[in-house]
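Customer ticket, subject: "Can you confirm the structure for Exodeoxyribonuclease III?"

Message body: Hello, I'm evaluating your service for our small team and ran a test protein. I'd like someone to confirm that this is what the system normally returns, since I don't have a reference to compare against.
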Amino acid sequence: MNIYTWNINGIRARQEALSAWLESRKPDIVVLEEVKAREEEIPESIASIEGYRKFWNGSSFRKGYSGVGLLVRDGLFDDAHCEVPPFDVENRTLVLRAPQFTLIGTYVPRGDGAEHYAVKLRYLADLKAFIADLLAEGRQVVLAGDMNVALTEIDVHRSQNKPGATGLRPEERAAIGEHLELGLHDIVRELNPDKKDLFTWWPNWKFARERNLGWRIDCLYLTDALAGKVSGVSVDLDEKSSDHAPVSVELSL
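Agent reply: Thanks for trying us out. I re-ran your input and got the following:
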């Protein structure tokens, strides 16, 4: 089973690229972040695509803002359902409850400005509490999405490693660290512990992507039992339609 996370940066602008990517990569599960569309605005080419159950938490908070989606291959689970959790803000979260695990798809607030930074820290705290409850129930968990935090120095290019920059602050890094302390594994980093150029997002600067001046902010975090079943991870650098690259994990279930 492969699970992808991809910040699509506008599903209407990326509908042709997404359709081609789905046909080429054939993901079992893909979490889409920053869809920037309400459910009724999802392009017909995506809404009617065959082979997937589709779930949307669209941008009702603000038109053309935020929003997440989840595509699950038909027949993958005998019994699974999707919901928006009670802590969700700004249409940023979907939860898939499947027999083998609970998957949380997330688009963490960026946190620009003092007010929105507070929203970000509150969201991360609520997300942590939600995961802790799942673990207390004995559930295995996959947390997949755009975390909007470069966790360590190795996760951001030195040209952009500026103290105090949003996404690099001690409080937000500590908040992500607290998620991992629950027992989650940052599996892409664990399997690539010393890789310094492992980035998933690049700023809109001239040649930033070509020079790989990026950040690793798109992640998949897994509980112990699932981490032990990982047979591979990847960052799909060939897909360049968005400013984020798709990131995946392969599970042998």
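A couple of notes from the result: Residues 2-251 form a domain with the Deoxyribonuclease I; Chain A fold (CATH 3.60.10.10). Residues 114-136 form the longest helix (23 residues). Feel free to reply with more questions.
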